[in-house]
Known about the structure:
Elements: H1 7-15, E1 27-30, E2 32-38, E3 53-55, H2 62-72, E4 82-84, H3 88-97, E5 102-107, H4 112-118, E6 123-125, H5 133-139, E7 144-148, E8 162-170
Amino acid sequence: PAWEGNWAAVSKWFTKEQFQQLRALFHYPYGGPQIVVRADSGITKISDLNGKVVNLGAQGSTGARYSLIILKHHGLQEGSFTPSFLTDSNAADALKDGTVNCFVTYQLPGAAVVMNVDSVHPIRLLPIEKEAMPGILNDLRGYMPREWAANSYPNMVNNKPVQSIATNLTW
């Protein structure tokens, strides 16, 4: 098989032998949370989601779990908001019609699902607060601070970059 010729190189990983000339082969800026609300909602920060309906992501998904962690570090515990567990496309429709007040999607800015809402209603992306960042990064290992540009969507009302988190995949 083709892999046999590469076994000598692969086995170095298991012996922890140093690779002097190793370089990354591929780098992919993987998305992080975009916390989306309608601009006309009056919601400007994550703590404003208290008492609101928040779509966390699909039931049982990693995104839903991570969304709960982000909310927790902004003082929102289960019971202080109503969770929703729709897929991204259904959550976008629910935000458009007002069934949910917010949805969280884990993609890079420019995501079609957010554009779907932005094409009908101006949107706001909610920032991760500076005070919440250390706890979130401690709980979500591998993530790092990241900003989403203020002009990520045509009808986005944020007038400055939006603080978030993201991860990168490197091979």
